[in-house]
Amino acid sequence: MSSIRLLQRIAAAGLLCLPGRARALSLDETIDQAFRPIAKAMSDFVFYSVSVGESELQLIVLWLIIGALAFTLYFRFINVRGFMHAIRVTRGVYDDPDEPGEVSHFQALTTAVSGTVGVGNITHVAVAISIGGPGATFWLIVAGFLGMASKFIECTLGTKYRQENPDGSVSGGPMFYLDKGLAECGLPRLGKTMAWYYAICIVIGCLGVGCMFQANQAYVQMVNVTGGSDSFFALRGWLFGAVLAGLVALVIVGGIRSIARVTSRLVPFMAILYLLTAVIVIGANYADVPWAIYAIVSNAFSPEGVTGGVIAVLVLGFRRAAFSNEAGIGSSSIAHAAVKTREPVSQGYVAMLEPFIDTVIVCTTTALLITVTVYEPGMVSDGTISGVELTSSAFASVIPWFPYVLAIIIMLFAYSTMISWSYYGLEGCIYLFGSNRWTKTIFNTIFCLFVVLGCTTQLGAILDFSDAMVFAMALANVLGLYLLAPVVKRELNAYWTRLRARHPNAR
Description:
Blueprint (H helix, E strand, L loop, with lengths): L2 H13 L11 H20 L2 E4 L2 E4 H16 L3 H4 L1 H8 L14 H12 L2 H14 L2 H26 L2 E2 L5 E2 L2 H11 L3 H18 L2 H18 L11 H16 L2 H30 L4 H13 L7 H17 L7 H4 L7 H8 L1 H21 L5 H4 L5 H9 L5 H32 L3 H18 L4 H44 L5
Antiparallel strand pairs: 1-2, 3-4
Helix pairs in contact: 2-23, 3-8, 3-15, 3-23, 5-17, 6-13, 6-18, 6-21, 7-15, 7-18, 7-20, 8-9, 8-14, 8-15, 8-17, 8-18, 8-23, 9-10, 9-23, 10-21, 10-23, 11-21, 11-22, 11-23, 12-21, 12-22, 13-18, 13-21, 18-20, 20-21, 21-22
């Protein structure tokens, strides 16, 4: 008897004991029902909120907002004055082929971007607009801009405190800079505790945000474009998930170099494909673009139909942005730590491009797409459609077959995000259990199993679980960034001294 059939029989046997049950639940429904209470409990804990007037302000979101603003001011708006230098470093202008590491600046960026530019850019913007109106987009963009400073500091630290493993590979990220960095500052116990906490969070969190959520939304779109409730996959999420898991396994077993090779080709292609198709739809509704921009800006300060007013929309925008670009979360510093460089600050500059690409460009494009096509004020309170379905309907409003193009894009987004986040979770395992073959094999197997689980669980549970685990990581990471910010400032000053000694015209 197969394991799937065994689970089905066990579930059916249990349901026979329940009074008033009209029908047996499917395997997908059974798994979702079991998973939902866990997701809700975690979400309620992490997103504890306090009342501010008529609004509910989530303390974890405030934690990220204050941190991003503080780092922007502390580094004197490095997100503005360092932007062009970031592009030059990414292009390899200052590269030395003999520097230590595993991947180039560009490959490290594309790996990290593949973990952020994903289904969330399509789904979360739609969710934000469907709940808070176009005004949520404005605060989402502001969060992306401020988040560039958070990316700078955490990715500089991730590269500075990385470790070289016995097999020649490189490991880095918050686990390592919290441990080593705080030990250098005379806080070894605090650093070790925070590092362990972060490692546990990212191992568990990667299974939600980088695995289950991505797989779920890819599955939803596949069902939508293949007949909806009549689709072959409608009640066969496990089958779709099994195929997707197999494709993920083909790449992740090769480690960061294999992942970087795939993402360096896949990310530019999928981003251009999505932006091009979105621009076509926006162009077909060009007359409504000025109104859409006005709606985004005006609704940010005078939202209509949103309980809690401006603060509620602000919190919604920042929460969606943090989920999308991960600024302050620290996860992408794991990918950036594998870069070939002796200058940690150089990768900090490169990392700033992440929130700009992810939030300022891709998310804004999605917001304009939805606002000029299918958005109506009544949708905010109606709540009948959200997530990827809203974006899909926006594409279909111009050309009926465009959702098929979107389905391809979503598959690529989901796939690239999953292979990147598998690496993040693996590095957490390596910190906890060491770098060895068994650690890698067991984690990769579990990750692929959760791909299947993601395709058998509904959006609500996935979103709650993913949000909770992502934001839980920020508790330790942002505190560590505050404590280690002076270290980064010293590194920044020393970096420019050395760079101008080699390249007098560097800027």
